[in-house]
Amino acid sequence: MSESVFVTVPEHVAIIMDGNGRWAKQRGLPRTMGHRKGVEAVRETVRAAGAAGIKYLTLFAFSSENWRRPEAEVSDLLGLLKAFIRRDLAELHRQNVRIKVIGDRHSLRNDILGLLLEAEETTKDNTALTLVIAFNYGSRDEISRAVVSLARDVEAGRLRAQDITPSLINARLDTAGIPDPDLIIRTSGEERLSNFLLWQAAYSEFIFVPEYWPDFSPEIFRSALEKFASRDRRFGGLSSQAAAVGT
After folding, report:
1. What is 64-103 written as a DSSP string?
2. What's the rounded Cα separation, in Å, for the pair 57 and 59?
3. Is 141 marked active-site?
4. 149 labelled binding-site residue
5. pLDDT (tens digit, 9 = 90+) per residue, 145-191?
6. How far is Cα 98 from Cα 93, in angstroms, rounded to an integer?
7. H/E element holding 44?
8. What pLDDT digit, counting tens, does each position of 70-118 carry?
9. SS3 for 237?
10. Residue 104 catalytic?
11. Which residues are involved in binding Mg(2+) (predicted)?
12. Domains present along the chain, CATH in parentheses
C-alpha cells in the first residue's frame, strides 16, 4: 500500500479493536483463540499503517474496564501482550517504529510495567511510525488524572485557576505531544467510543466496519483510508466547496 495512492493520508489513526470474542464464538472456539488471532491482525495493521505513510497509530489494547472480565481471560490477554512485546519488539525496532504507551501505570504488575517501559526506552529515538498502545486506559480516568495534576499546581500556587486553558489540559493528558487522531476506526459493527480518546476525538472522523477485529485486513484498512480521503473536514468552519462558492 503506497502513500501516493491517497489524496489525504491521516497523520494519526486510532483503532478500537473490537470483536475477538464474537469472532471465536462464531467458529465454536474459545475466546482466547479470538484474542490470539487478533494479535496477527495487529501485526498486519502496523505494517499497513507504516506503508501508507501514517505517522501515529493508536491501538486500544486493554481498557481500564477490562479488568472486570473473567480472571482467566484477563490472564490470557496479559500473556498475549507480553508475548507480543517479547516477540515483536526487535522487529518493530528494526522498522524504526517508536512505541508509546498511554494509560494508568500506577496499578500495573511489575512484569507488565517493566516490559512496557522497556519497549518505550528501546524505541524512543525511532522516527518512523509511532505505535501508541492504550493499555489500562480509560479516557475519563485520563482526564481526571490531568485535572488532579492541574488542581495540585493551583493549590501549590504554581498556577492560577483562570489560566487553565484547553491547551494546558491537553499537555497533562497521556497523549501530550501526540496529535489528535484524524480518523478513529472501530471494528465489529459497534458504533461508540467506549471511553476511548474522548478529549482527543473532538474533530476526528469516524469509520465503523462490520468485520470483527481478527478479520481486519490491509484491504479493509485501505478502504477506510480511502473513505477518509473523500471526506471534507471543516473543523467548525465552512466546507471547502462552500468557501469556494463564497469567494
Report:
1. TTGGGS-HHHHHHHHHHHHHHHHHHHHHHHHTT-EEEEES
2. 7
3. no
4. no
5. 999 999 999 999 999 999 999 999 999 999 999 999 999 999 999 99
6. 7
7. helix 31-52
8. 888 888 888 888 888 888 999 999 999 999 999 999 878 888 899 999 9
9. coil
10. no
11. 18, 205
12. 10-137+179-228 (3.40.1180.10)
Which grid cell sits at 197? 480518546
And the C-alpha cell for 247? 469567494
Taking 90 as the threshold, does the pLDDT of residue 5 lie above it?
A: no
Amino acid of residue 238: L
For residues 206-219, give the mean pLDDT.
98
**Residue 167 annotated as binding site:** no
**Separation of alpha carbons 107 and 91, rounded Å:** 29
69 is in an annotated binding site: yes
Catalytic residue among 66, 126, 170, 195: 66
Q: What whole-number distance in Å separates Cα of residue 161 and Cα of residue 153?
A: 9
Contact 46, 99 (CB under 8 A): no
* 64 annotated ligand binder: yes
Is 199 one of the annotated binding-site residues? no
Amino acid identity of residue 45, one-letter, is T
